[in-house]
Amino acid sequence: MFDVVTLGSATKDVFLFLDNSSLKPGVNRHFLEIPFDKKIELKDRMDFSGGSATNAAATFASFGKKAAVIAKIGSDEDAEFIVDDLKARKISTEYLIKTSGKTPISNILISSNNDAVILVYRGIEAQLDMSEISLDFDSKWMFFGPLPAGSTNILPKLIDYCNEKNINTVMNPGSTELNLKLKKMAPMLKDIDIISMNDEEARRFVGYSNDIKNAVKLASVVKKMAIITKGDKGSLVADKEYIYSASAFKAKQINFVGAGDAYLSGFVNALMDGKDIGGAITLGSYNASSVVKKYGAKEGIVNDYPEEKEITIRKYKYEDVK
Asked: What's the mean pLDDT in 192-204?
């Protein structure tokens, strides 16, 4: 019996650090300018394992949970790098799908002032098929991370399996699911316990410009609750009766890769430990604030609860915030 099984991506994340002359902010700081027709020297390079499934599993394992990962990797050195990292963290690789092909990789270009661009190669992951997943695991929870466009058809069968086995489910939808919008996804979401996304994703997915309305709407279509993260502005959680509005732990951010995975896995880990929603928000925020202080999606993952809360959480009834 696993405490949690995570489904999503397993990647090698390569952080490439450029000097100030080769990478600078562009229009409205929403773009980075990179010169062409010249050789660009790197100041440094750092390699880490990444991907939603392995990032989430790392938090659970850090707290002593028995975790397994379902993800598709290739037969190359990058795959070996990921497997070695998971084993070192005592995360089960029993359900990793290893096949011929290239392992997913992300190249993260970092400027001297920590602006970043991520270049993603999906590799063999884009061909993940239901026939490759062994439906013989037993777990208390299942974590659904973003999936590549061609693999979202596996979700209904996996959700049905979780319902049959009474496995609690949490979902962080990817761009393919988000583009389907709430109306098309609602029949599937009714069997999900917890859904989480950031504020920009929620506005696109649900359709309201108001974060509270989006959180309440999302909570109405899932079994238990919805989470909307807002970066350094905190987060919102809505269950069937209350809205929780929270600030964020203060952190000097140098990295954003893995922050969302850290929040959601920390949140769920706290629920697994019997904490209430306030305690779950606290650990989620604490974990995310630690991850953004270090390069790599896993390097800052915590292994204990904060000694002091350091954040403000306010609880409202629905009628008080409408």
From this structure: 97
